[in-house]
Amino acid sequence: MKLEAVIFDLDNTLVDSRHDYREMSKRLREVFEERGLWQEDPENPRKIWEIVRGGIEGIRDLGLSEAESRELMDDVNDALTAAELSALDTAKPMPHAVETLDALKKMGLKVGIATRSGAAYARRCVEKTGLAPFVDAMLARDEVDSPKPSPDHLLQVVDMLEATPERVVYIGDSTTDLTTAGAAGITFLGFWWSDERATRMKEAGCRNFVRDLKEILDFIEKK
How confident is the model at residue 188 (pLDDT cuts 50, 70, 90)? Predict the structure, then answer.
């Protein structure tokens, strides 16, 4: 089967980033507290993150009107983007990222990015790290109604690349990426960014990994 495109997660896959997740959590809490929506849940301390991960659908489940849901989603994205931009200076391309994307383009493949980072950060990040010239399409969390793990996020990037899901490989470093690819019917390749995340991906059923981005080329040549 001839592949048409390769789509990547951004942070900790193509880019080595150092986001301050405590700062993100603090900013999220402030957004929810301002609306009286913050509730401590000892049984699930990540509840707010789970709501945010669901995109606009997760926000609607709070019982807000459509206008209120959209306004809250915008404020959530602004808060997260501010935290992401504060860490932009630390971002650098993963080893062999530029060489790998260049090789993929020379093979006639299109390159896309589906990221849960915000668009303002993501676009400045790919520019800063020298990846932008190789990217044909990118969608961030605030450019879709339902970000990863919704398959819609990934499938919209596939459409932008004018590819078909059966002829695409998606590469990411988390169980969220694995779940997204599975729901979209797209071949997944795990990037071994950390032992902890790789173990979780293995437990979730991931069978194929690369520890260096240039290993993607060997994987693709076998497809």
Answer: very high
Sequence-separated (6 or more) residues with CB below 8 Å from residue 4: 109, 110, 161, 163, 164, 167, 168
Where are the alpha helices (H) located in 54-165, listed in sequence order?
55-60, 66-86, 97-106, 119-128, 151-160
Q: How many Å apart are CA 129 and CA 94, to the nearest integer?
A: 9
Cα distance between residue 190 and residue 126, in whole Å: 21
Strand pairing partners for 4? none
Residue 116 DSSP code: S
Closest C-alpha among 156, 155, 180, 172 to residue 53: 180
* Rounded distance between C-alpha atoms, residue 36 and residue 28, angstroms: 13
pLDDT tens readout for residues 126-156: 999 999 999 999 999 999 988 999 999 999 9
